[in-house]
Amino acid sequence: MVRGTLAQKCDYLGRVPKNIRLPVEKVLEDGSYLSWIAPDGKSKKKGGTKIMVRVIEYTIDTEGEPEIYRLITSLTDIALFPALLLAMEYHQRA
């Protein structure tokens, strides 16, 4: 999905499951960080390579239970797209 979105020259913002490993490459001033996602096995066989992503992690208390959200995005300019703004916009999507 990420590769297809980038091929259309579009940006993305989406939630990723907990089981996806996103090692911290560089921590940014707003608390988000840069990481890499690897292609799936099928894409790797077709020559797919790693893609740099920005990761935004935060917790929301819902009904007394904390829920951890982890978003990835291609929007890496923290001055234009601070982590808090992107997290709020993610929850406003239709």
Strands of the largest sheet, in order across it?
1-5-4-3-2
Helix percent band:
10-25%
Q: What is the CA–CA distance across the termini?
A: 19 Å
Order of helices and strands: HEEEHEEH
Q: How many strand units?
A: 5
Number of domains as seen in the coordinates: 1
The proportion of residues in beta strands is 25-35%
Description:
It is a single chain. The protein has 3 helices and 5 strands, in the order αβββαββα. With 94 residues, it is α+β, with helices and mostly antiparallel strands. It has one domain (2-92). β4 and β5 form a beta hairpin. The longest helix has 10 residues, at 83-92. The chain is globular and about 45 Å long. It starts with a helix and ends with a helix.
Keyword list:
single chain, 94 residues, 3 helices, 22% helix
Please give the structural blueprint.
Blueprint: H1 2-7, E1 13-15, E2 26-27, E3 33-37, H2 41-45, E4 51-62, E5 65-73, H3 83-92
Antiparallel strand pairs: 1-5, 2-3, 3-4, 4-5
Describe the structure in brief.
Helices cover 22% and strands 33% of the residues. By secondary structure, the chain is an alpha+beta fold.
